[in-house]
Structures are given as C-alpha cells and as structure tokens.
C-alpha cells in the first residue's frame, strides 16, 4: 500500500475529503485548506498541530501494519526533523527525495545560509537513503554525505500519452524550453 500524508495544503487548494484515493494511492489531508488570511502565529499553531497529528498517524499506521519505509519529499529541515525522529523511534526506514539543489533557498541571505548549513550538516545525515533525479545532484550530495548514506538516481520520466493532444506547432519562431 502507498499512502501520502499531506501536512501542508497543496497549491492553496482546499480538499472536500480528509481522505481520498487517486490512481489507487491513498491521500490523507491532515492540513487545513487555505491559510492565506490568517496571522503568522495562527499559521504556526496550525502547522505544529498538523505535524503532531501526522506523527500520531504514522505511529498508528505502523502499529496496525508495519510501515516499510517513509519517504519525505519536504526540504525544510524544521519539517523533516520531526518525521525523521518519529520514523527512527518507530523503527521505520526513512528516505528523502531531492529534485533541486538546496542552495536555491534564500540566496545571499543569512537566514538562507543558516538553513542550508543545518540541512546539509545535520538533517540529510539522518536519512537511511536519498534519491535524486540526475548525476549533478548525485555528485553534489556525494560531497556532503561522504559515502555515509546511500544515494541513488531515480530519473523523472514523461508519459508521452499525456501530451498526445498538445499541438505540435511551435508557439514561437525561436528555440525555447517549456517548463511543465
């Protein structure tokens, strides 16, 4: 079984159901919907309560049916660390997905430097493995992990059938890259 626990609203969308299934995968929405028009303090309170709820849900799922692995897609250490701790406590292997370099956060700011340093020097060393999408990221993380954590490339793929109805005519008279 594959299950996603969503601890943050996804693209500001509100869900009508707390649990739904898409393509055979169960999604549990633990986060409330939109939180744009509330104070930062209330947002923090919601986030903390959602993390606590998610940690309890992981423990509950693990006691019902042993969880093989927890895969964390988040990149912020303050959101990763509580789940890594829970997984270790529950005896669950925990893996991390990286699709970007961590140095994109807060470029040129002290805050960004502190977050990157904490993530690279502490957080990533707590995983049982990390998978990345290309050789460049593999090389980058190899330097920071020094062979202590397994790294693998899991390349992203495109399903050509999804784009069968997209017009083949170029939109512009010059070469360009379209990001989907």
Biggest β-sheet description: 4 strands, parallel
Radius of gyration from CA coordinates: 19 Å
**Anisotropy-based shape:** globular
Element-level helix/strand string = EEEHEHEHEHE
Query: Strands of the biggest beta sheet: in what spatial order?
Result: 4-5-6-7
Number of strands: 7
Number of helices: 4
Q: Could you list the spans in which at least 5 consecutive residues all have pLDDT below 50?
A: none
What does this structure look like?
The protein starts with a strand and ends in a 27-residue tail after the last strand. Helix content is 34%, strand content 17%. It has 180 residues and is α/β, with parallel strands linked by helices. The strands form two sheets. It has a four-stranded parallel beta sheet, with helices on one face. Strands 1-3-2 form a three-stranded mixed beta sheet, with no helix packed on it. It is built from four helices and seven strands, in the order E-E-E-H-E-H-E-H-E-H-E. The longest helix is centred in the first third of the chain and has 25 residues, at 40-64. The protein has helices at 40-64, 77-90, 110-121, 135-145; strands at 3-6, 19-22, 25-29, 69-72, 93-98, 129-132, 151-153.
